[in-house]
Design brief:
alpha+beta, 2 helices, 6 strands, 25% helix
Amino acid sequence: MTAVTRTLKVARVLPGASRRVSPKAMAIDQSRTSLRRFLQRLTADEETLEAESLQRESAKSGCMPAGLCMRGQVVTLTGRLKTVVYTPRTNLPTLEADLYDGSDVVTLVWLGRRHIAGIEPGRQLSARGRVAVRDDRKVIYNPYYELEATR
């Protein structure tokens, strides 16, 4: 077998002049990036692949990434529930669920609720509400939510 070496000529571009890239050079560059992406997917762990999948779904639905939302914003998020916890308090019981969209976690808190049908770990949902910060965590109190069909 013989090794084939490819070299690309780099042309000096003057300011204001248009730069042309040959279709062959673009095809070589695209094949390198697709091979690189394939190898990254092949060697990535499950958490990374899940995060990338959730981020793609969130972007496709037009929702804001949880990593970009800030305190005081009204946002719509979509993702998967990681944990659901009932927290009994003396005066006010709360149901808390961690919504993960691949970029960050936002805690959804329903005040005065012990259980909500369909709110369980692993469930996909979209939630809308105003972001607050409690103990350095992003929180949405009493969000509007929509459960997505189970897969």
